[in-house]
Amino acid sequence: MNCSYCNADFDAEAAKHACSACLISTGCKSVKCPRCGYDSPEEPQLFARLKAWWGRGAEAAAEALPRECTLSQLRPGESALITALRPGSRKDLQKLLALGVLPGSTVTLERNFPSFVFRVGFSQYATDRMLSDAVVVRRSVVAVPAPAAGEPAPLQPAAL
User: Does residue 132 sit within a domain?
Assistant: First the structure.
């Protein structure tokens, strides 16, 4: 499930645990986000089936993503290495440097709406789209686990 307020991904069991303190927990059709506590209606089974059906191609779509992009093009929860800063003005460059956004640092996008919230080291920052577009990053390469004995090796994606 996905929270419509904070964009956090969580499973139904975590939502039930977050709802356990509620007085009307029996017969309730709402789901509570364990991260922010936002109540939202329960997802219909038809939507869950459609998401599962469409989600089958998500792995192939992730492989097709460009390795180098801007910070605003990352998905929430995705980490990348900062490769360059391309601000529109000297003032924007000064802002980024004051925040500690430097080439060679690892950045993780926490949220992309209403503003871009990202983490560099142990610090968390919120910026607008223009400043996030000034940070050029390189996505991490996902490690493919080795197959168990007797299993065929998985197909490897083409080098980007």
Answer: yes
Q: What is the pLDDT of residues 53-93, one digit of tens each?
A: 776 555 555 555 678 999 999 999 999 999 999 998 999 99
C-beta neighbour count of 151 within 10 angstroms: 8
Domain coverage including residue 105: 65-139
Q: What is the number of domains present in the chain? A: 2
Query: Could you give the CA distance from residue 79 to residue 109 in angstroms, rounded to a whole number?
Result: 7
> Considering only CA atoms, which of 70, 106, 67 is closest in space to residue 85?
70
Cβ-Cβ contacts under 8 Å for 155 (sequence gap 6 or more):
none
Contact 18, 32 (CB under 8 A): yes
CA distance 117 to 96: 14
Global pTM value: 0.52
Nearest to 77, CA basis, from 10, 13, 148, 146 = 10
Query: CATH number of the domain that 95 lies in?
Result: 2.30.30.90
List the structure tokens of 80: 């990348």
Q: Which residues have a Cβ under 8 Å from the Cβ of 68 and sit 6 or more positions away?
A: 83, 136, 137, 138, 139
